[in-house]
Amino acid sequence: MNSYQCIAPDVKLGRNVKLSQFINLYGCEIGDETKIGAFVEVQKNATIGKRCKISSHTFVCEGVTIEDNVFIGHGVVFINDSYPRATTEGKLQTEADWKVERTVIKKGASIGSGVTILSNLTIGENAIVGAGSVVTKDVPANSIVAGNPAKLLRYIEQTLEVAE
Q1: For this structure, is 57 an active site residue?
Q2: Which of 44, 57, 102, 107 is catalytic?
Q3: Disulfide engineering: 60 pairs with which of 35, 42, 44, 144, CB 3.0-4.6 Å?
C-alpha cells in the first residue's frame, strides 16, 4: 500500500480503479474504472459508480450516491446535514444525535469546480452544474444550472451518449 493513501480495509474498490496519492477512503464503494484525484476524501456509506472522475480536493460525505459516468470537478463539497450543530443540550454531538441526509448525482452528470451541493437533493441525469455554484434544490435531467443559488439556465438539446 502507498504510504500517501489512507484506504480502510472496508473500502470496496472495483476493477481498474485509479487512485492518486494523498487520499482518504473509508467505508465507501468505488466502481470499476473510476479515477480518484489527490486530496480527495470519501466517507463511509458513500457510493461512486463506474467510469467516474473525481477531481482533486473534493469531499464526498456519508450519504452521497454518485452514479456511473459522472464528472466531479476540483474542490467540490457535498453536505449531508441541513442544520448542523456542534452540541446537543450542551454536550458535543455524536453520530446518534443526527440523521444522514442523502444526495444523489445521476448518471452522466457533470459538476464544475468549486461547487457546493447541499443535502436532500438529486442532480438529474446528464445535468451540468456550473463552476462555483451552490446547489440548494433538485437539478432537472439534461439541464444546465449555475449561480448562488444555482438557477436553471437552459436545457441541453442533445444528450450525450455514454458507453455502457
Answers
A1: yes
A2: 57
A3: 42
Would you give per-residue pLDDT tens digits along the chain (164 residues)? Answer: 466 889 999 999 999 999 999 999 999 999 999 999 999 999 999 999 999 999 999 999 999 999 999 999 999 999 999 998 899 889 998 888 889 999 999 999 999 999 999 999 999 999 999 999 999 999 999 999 999 999 999 999 865 555 55
Contact 32, 49 (CB under 8 A): no
Partners of 66 in the beta sheet?
A: 48, 105
Cell triple for residue 139? 437539478
Nearest one of 117, 111, 131, 121 to 69, comparing CA atoms:
111
Q: What is the pTM assigned to this prediction?
A: 0.92
- DSSP state letter for 39: T
Residues 6+ apart with CB under 8 A from 4: 21, 22
Residue identified by cell 454536550 is 91
Amino acid occupying residue 76: V
Q: Which residue has the cell 443540550?
A: 89
Q: Which grid cell is 73?
A: 470537478
